[in-house]
């Protein structure tokens, strides 16, 4: 997978964290910079670690599934993209209620589960994981921090279109895997 495709993957994966951070930015008005940094750091770390875990675990089964890798990559990306689009259209979204360590860990895990699948995909493509994982973590940190700050300033921006855009990017990357 090219670095351009990895960059698009990182941007798409970071949308969940950005949207959650945007929501937090709407709710929390005190210690904005400190809270934005805490949330961005947590989501960034998890988004960097989860693809590495997916990558490492794929190594155990890669020999058995390598001839199906293009189809597996396609299915994973189409599933993730469809999930993003479906969730964007789901009107019942939970509002964040806390920003303590426990909540931050849960947010980090919840927003990075999709990144685990991305690690599987990177392994199947034959990429190494360190640079993509760092890029995913960095882009997530930046987008999460920005989302929190912007959330406080643009309280009426519909985040639905960010999620749909991320879903479309993932589906297009899946189609590209078949070509």
Q: Tell me the name of the CATH class.
A: Mainly Alpha
Quote the distance from N terminus to C terminus: 12 Å
Total domains: 1
Unreliable spans? none
> Strand fraction band?
under 5%
Mean pLDDT across the residues is 83
Element pattern in H and E: HHHHHHH
Would you kindly provide a brief summary of this structure?
With 179 residues, the chain is mainly alpha-helical. Helices cover 81% and strands 0% of the residues.
Please provide a written account of the structure.
With 179 residues, the protein is an all-alpha fold. The protein has one domain: Growth Hormone, Chain: A (Up-down Bundle). 81% of the residues lie in helices and 0% in strands. The relative contact order is 0.28.
List the topology elements.
Blueprint: H1 3-27, H2 32-58, H3 62-65, H4 69-89, H5 101-125, H6 130-153, H7 160-178
Helix pairs in contact: 1-2, 1-5, 1-6, 1-7, 2-5, 2-6, 4-5, 4-7
């Amino acid at each position: 997978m090219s670095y351009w495709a990895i960059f698009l993957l990182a941007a798409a994966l970071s949308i969940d964290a950005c949207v959650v951070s945007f929501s937090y930015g709407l709710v929390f008005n005190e210690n904005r910079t400190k809270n934005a940094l805490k949330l961005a750091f947590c989501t960034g770390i998890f988004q960097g670690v989860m693809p590495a875990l997916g990558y490492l675990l794929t190594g155990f089964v890669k020999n058995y599934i390598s001839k199906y890798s293009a189809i597996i990559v396609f299915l994973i990306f189409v599933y993730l993209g469809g999930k993003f689009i479906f969730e964007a259209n789901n009107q019942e979204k939970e509002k964040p209620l806390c920003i303590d360590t426990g909540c931050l860990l849960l947010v980090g895990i919840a927003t990075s589960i999709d990144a685990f699948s991305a690690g599987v995909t990177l392994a199947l493509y034959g990429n190494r994981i360190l640079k993509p994982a760092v890029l995913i973590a960095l882009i997530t940190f930046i987008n999460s921090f920005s989302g929190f700050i912007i959330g406080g300033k643009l309280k009426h921006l519909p985040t639905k279109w960010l999620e749909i855009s991320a879903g479309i990017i993932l589906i297009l990357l899946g189609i590209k895997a078949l070509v």
